[in-house]
Amino acid sequence: MNLGPSQSFAAGRERTVHVGQGEFEVSDDPNVVMTTVLGSCVAACIRDPAAGLGGINHFLLPDREGGFEGEEARRYGVHAMEMLINRLLQAGARRDRLEAKLFGGACLFQRLKNIGADNAAFATRFLGAEGIPVRGGDLGGERARRIRYWPATGQAFQRLLDPSEDQIFIREQRSAVKAPVDQGDLELF
Fold first, then answer.
1. How sure is the predictor about 2, in pLDDT bands with cuts at 50, 70 and 90?
2. Does the annotation mark 41 as catalytic?
3. Please, which residues bridge with residue 136 across strands?
4. Which of 41, 84, 100, 188 is flagged as catalytic?
């Protein structure tokens, strides 16, 4: 996390922080841009505009009945959302000022269960239940996307990957994700 005194950077120089699957980051540094690449996964960009403080998470699956333990929890949206919101509050954000942007939730393979739609629906429901308004973003579709998010200002930029980049992204995700033994025949992307 980047919540200590802002490091000094030359004017116009950004520091990029990549957020991978199961991770989250929080910052108030105006020189920080957070990035992630999403397929069916969802990222919530949540911030307190008055505090100039924000963060992003990246989750693979919405929720799981029966709970989870240890590192496995990082895969799930309920854990990712709670971790991000709690860290924002610890850093000085106020719950009544939080606002969000949601990205991801693509359906990359028509023949498989649409995990992306489940992730998007979960994130929308969760934020609604928490009273956090969704102010923007882009959910669904059939393309992977790169996200750049400036947490201090709330600015977000999305670039849809072209089909050749989609295939590279899919291969990388297959090699990076190890499906849990008790998940049956579900293949995660």
1. very low
2. yes
3. 101
4. 41
